[in-house]
Amino acid sequence: MIQKDILRFCMEKGVLIDQEVLKILNDSEDIESVKLVIEKIKSYTNQRIINKSVFEDKILADKFFSGLPQNQTLKKLKIIFGLSIEISNESAGINEIEPSPFSDSHVRAQSLFTYPKKIEVSSFTNYFRARFLEIKGILQEKRELDNLISINKLSNVRQAFSIIGMVYDKRITKNKNMILEVEDLTGKIKVLINQNKPELYAKAEDISLDSVIGFKGFGSREIFFANDFFFPDAFLSERKNSPADESVVFISDVHVGSMHFLEKNLLQFIDYLNMKTPEAEEAKKIKYLFVVGDLVAGVGAYPNQERELAIPVLEEQYKKAAELFRMIRKDIKIVVIPGNHDCVRLMEPQPPLDEKFAGDLYKLSNVIHASNPSYITIGEKENFPGFNILLYHGFSYPYYANNVPSLMTRGESLIPSKIMTYLLKNRHLTPTHSTFIQHYPSEFDPMTIRKIPDIFVSGHTHKGSVDYYKNILLISTTCWEELMPYQEKMGFQSDYCKVPMFNLKTRKFKVLDFYDGDKAESKTSYGMVQ
Q1: How many angstroms separate the Cα of 169 from the Cα of each of 165, 203, 209, 275?
Q2: What is the dihedral of CA 113, 419, 233, 225, to 10 degrees?
Q3: 100-132 burial by CB neighbour count: b if 16+ within 10 A, else e?
Q4: Of 55, 268, 285, 329, which is most buried with the most CB atoms under 10 A?
Q5: Structure confidence by residue, pLDDT tens digits, 36-52
Q6: Which of 130, 333, 337 is nearest to 249 (CA)?
Q7: Would you say 497 and 478 are in contact if contact means Cβ atoms under 8 Å apart?
Q8: What's the rounded Cα separation, in Å, for the pair 421 and 378?
């Protein structure tokens, strides 16, 4: 506890500090670094009271840390105050895995989970503040948002301006206009979307609660009339090509342990990887296999699941999975993340598979374990940065498919790449905080899409889908489990045993099909993408 030392130092410098900032600085447990920051704040602002508002001007706030030694404490404070998106291993609990030595095909895995701590109401407050400040920084780069102003600076005089805020509430008036209640760190304001602007209104129907959005229009402190609004959005300026002729394949929702598990089909896939089929030359190029969650069926994942388990013990399910993956040739690196059926917490982000249950998988030298979500870099060579891949199992997807008008299927087949596009626009994997999607309130928001990936991959929906969004390749994987009665009741339409394959040099996309069942398959959204 350094709280007394901080207060004593503030008294000596003639400044006051509010409770929220005091708690953040106290948690750093590094009094010397804290003193340096306090002195900088005083010298640049001349304010007698230090509160979170002094960090709102990012250009000014960056000066509080400039010229100081960049130790772990200062890096952590910059992240908390929304001044940096750099995530250090110590400050964020990130699991950074170095390339394994057995192959010249490098893999770097950045797991975005935080170590457990006591959760309080203030944990959620700080979590949402961190998310707001980070995405606000992205939106501030948009030229369209001119004359940006904080909500508490608005006057009674009607004028043109722009604001950035988090959507707190959304409703339709009796006149069929849309009213959004939007807040920043300084206050709230009502934003009106007029029904007489059909294009803008239709666009606004897709706004999710808790999204951070930039609004442009006019009004006063009483109400703001939006002429346009902007998502933070994501894009790549170009598509990469690796100098090495190698390929990557993706699977998910294997559900080992289910009595509906398509083991025979998975073994056919393993034979293909091991070059035991006529396509040996094609398979030889595969250097990476990604398993994007739900490796096993789990236990108690849904009501009465025990009736449909061939292997009723969780540890035995992972032993069986390890037995299967042990068959794969060792020069293929296998990256595994958890899903909602696996042996970790349901709250996101999820840590890597628990070694207590999945110990046999940890014994496989070519298996790399990462969190859900995580960033993985593959194919890094001299003078080539590699491909940055964002992995997210996709547990939030049904929520958006059922609540965002443009994503609602209305009886048609679900296309996951549309949901993935929507989340990229929001720069967040789970923008809405709800009872369905549980967030772990860490000091930074790991569900924010900080780095723009070259490839964004998900599972969970059991539906195959591929598309490009602003040069970002979107891939949704299929499953290896026949449709169960519970899933039929929930309206699932599954695709089976189709494996997307992507060549890093040619960017050629191909779907390997290992399904030979008698059931009629629903149409996938896999196809040739340009």
Answers
A1: 12, 16, 6, 55
A2: -120
A3: eeeeebebbbbbbbbeeeeeeeeeeebbbbbbb
A4: 55
A5: 888 778 766 666 788 87
A6: 333
A7: yes
A8: 23
Same fold, 151-230 and 247-513: no
**3-class secondary-structure state, position 513:** strand
Mark 157-168 as b/e (b = at least 16 C-beta within 10 Å): eeeebbbbbbbe
Q: Under CATH, which number does the domain 247-513 receive?
A: 3.60.21.50
Q: CA 81 to CA 62: how far, in whole Å?
A: 10
Residues of the chain where predicted confidence (pLDDT) is lower than 70: 1, 29, 43-47, 56-60, 63, 66-73, 82-105, 114-116, 411, 435, 485-492, 517-530
Place of tokens 């994987």: 477
Measured between alpha carbons, how far is 254 from 301 in angstroms, rounded to an integer? 14
Give the side-chain half-sphere CA count within 13 A for 24. 28
**Closest-CA residue to 494 (of 468, 460, 466):** 460
Closest CA to 389 of 477, 271, 270: 477
Number of neighbouring beta carbons within 10 Å of residue 97: 17
CA dist 508 and 111 (Å) reads 28
Does CATH number 2.40.50.140 belong to domain 151-230?
A: yes
Distance CA 378, CA 244 (A): 11
Which regions of 381-485 does DSSP assign to beta strands (E)?
Answer: 387-392, 455-458, 465-469, 472-476
The domain spans of the chain are 3-84, 151-230, 247-513
User: What sign does the dihedral 293-298-303-307 (CA atoms) show?
Assistant: positive
Specify the 3-state DSSP secondary structure of 517: coil
Give the Cα separation of 440 and 342 in Å (integer). 17
| Contact predicate 308/253, CB 8 Å | no
- Number of other CB atoms surrounding residue 153 within 10 Å: 11
Q: From the CB of residue 67, how many other CB atoms can be counted at a distance below 10 Å?
A: 8
378-413: b (≥16 Cβ within 10 Å) or e: bbbeeeeebbbbbbbbbbbbbbbbeebeebeeeeee
Cβ neighbours, 10 Å, residue 70: 11
Within 8 A by CB and 6+ apart from 379, the residues are: 105, 106, 242, 244, 246, 287, 288, 386, 387, 504
Between CA 431 and CA 396 the distance in angstroms is 9
For residue 60, the model assigns a pLDDT of 67
What whole-number distance in Å separates Cα of residue 172 and Cα of residue 118? 39
Pairing of strands 212-219, 465-469: unpaired
- Give dist(CA 478, CA 499) in Å, integer: 7
Determine the straight-line distance between the first and last CA of the chain, rounded to whole angstroms: 57
377 CB-near residues (< 8 Å, 6+ apart): 106, 107, 108, 109, 110, 385, 386, 387, 388, 389
**Rounded to the nearest 5°, which phi and psi values hold at 226?**
-80, 130
